[in-house]
Amino acid sequence: MKIFYRVILILLPIISAFGQEGYPKPGVTISGVFKNSFCFPVVVSANKKTWSIDSSKSQDIQDSKWGEWNWLPGKVSQVSEKTVLHPLKNKPPLNFGPGQNSAHQGRNKYGYDFPADEGTPVHAIESGIVSKVVQNYTKAHDDPKKDLSNKVEVVHEDGTVSSYVHLKPNSAKVGPCEKVKEGQILAESGNTGYSSGPHLHIDVYRPIDGLNYTTIPLKFK
């Protein structure tokens, strides 16, 4: 019985936020409910047909149901390039830069691959809030269509999101919604996901709308 009451108490704040047809009530801000989200608020407009993410532009959700909405953390901005801290202490030169391999194309053009032995500490390139931690994958593979990489993502004050990929399994030193400082160790480099050997992939993207995004050029200091 105690377990039942506990479930009710947990669900009540979420249930009370919903109106008819499974949509949130107008003007309600909800955190940590959406797929792909951990702690970033979603504000629903009065007509129940648009929503905004962290002050980004409104999106038309048409007739999509609550559980089908998808979005990226961060916010729409005009940031076109950044100078950031090098993610590895010894500052190795690039293996592959923007457009230099098959994974660095299209909206993912501005990706940066650094050589790094498995277990090398990976540092935050800028202060922010952790928006995603994936650390359960154990193997590398050769299928570019599969997103099976361990990663940590951090949302920065300007609305951009840094992504650290191919990390060692269960090596994360931070958790979702945690505030991190520039230079703080986030995880350890590894060889998971679409990878031909141990290295660190990093990119910074800015959301456009829904799940659309674009990576931006980086300079490392």
From TrEMBL:
EC number: 3.4.-.-
EC class: hydrolase
Source taxon at top rank: Bacteria
SUPFAM superfamilies in alphabetical order: Duplicated hybrid motif (SSF51261)
UniProt cross-references to InterPro entries, sorted A to Z: Cell_wall_metabolism_enzyme, Dup_hybrid_motif, M23ase_b-sheet_dom
This protein's UniProt keywords: Hydrolase
Entry-linked Pfam families: Peptidase_M23 (PF01551)
Domain M23ase beta-sheet core intervals: 108-206
Endpoints of the signal sequence: none
CDD domains referenced in this protein's UniProt entry, alphabetically: M23_peptidase
GO molecular function: metalloendopeptidase activity
Protein name according to UniProt: M23 family metallopeptidase
Species of provenance: Peredibacter starrii
Species lineage: Bacteria, Pseudomonadati, Bdellovibrionota, Bacteriovoracia, Bacteriovoracales
